[in-house]
Specification:
homodimer; 118 residues; mainly alpha; 3-stranded antiparallel beta sheet
Chain lengths: 118, 118
């Protein structure tokens, strides 16, 4: 586990070659975490945790971001007082070409079919 | 939950429109279940549970097949005394075009990189 350049308090991340498919799929097997990943993909930029308005408690939100970080799906860095999140698209695309886009497309189709309460 | 034509003891399956992405991803978030799905995809035919030589107990194997069935990933039917398994490719492709192939490709790449002990 290493981390990117950040300000002081670095958070542990798996290296690219430590990322496991089954762990990524577990991270995405929760509706809230799928929603976070969709929003990050649509934003195409880093978003702070506080930008996500999820219908769960703050500690549950923190837990979800940790699962996403520890699985290798998102990169979390502190910038000042904000914890910023970005999809690890380059790493995931290198390991599993096409998978992230397929997953995002599938999540989008389900969202369109069932609405926000997936 | 309904089921396909089978011999007597039918097993419950979600209808196509009841299949949820997050439940499918949960079903595939286990190395043994990923392995079962890969073997079914490679076989391109129904396989009996006993055809799978997994390094887990028989009851654990049964559990894995049940998770795959209840998530909508596989169709299980009794044929005589054998429980036969097939991927629900048509249903999954209709709901999430391209996803199953991306997942199988990702599993294949990880298998090639790390070997059987994924």
């Amino acid at each position: 586990m290493t981390d990117t350049a950040a300000t002081g308090r670095d958070l542990p991340h798996p290296e690219r070659e430590e990322i496991r498919l089954e762990t990524v799929l577990h991270a995405l097997s929760d509706p809230m975490r799928l929603r976070i990943v969709r929003e990050l993909a649509l934003a195409e930029e880093e978003l702070s945790c506080s930008r996500f308005d999820l219908p769960v408690t703050k500690s549950t939100t923190t837990h979800h971001f940790r699962v996403l970080r520890e699985s290798g799906v998102v990169r979390q860095v502190y910038r000042g007082t904000a914890k910023m999140n970005a999809l690890r698209r380059e790493d995931l695309d290198a390991l599993f070409p096409g998978l992230l886009d397929s997953l995002l497309s599938a999540a989008g189709r389900q969202f369109a079919r069932l609405g926000d309460d997936i």
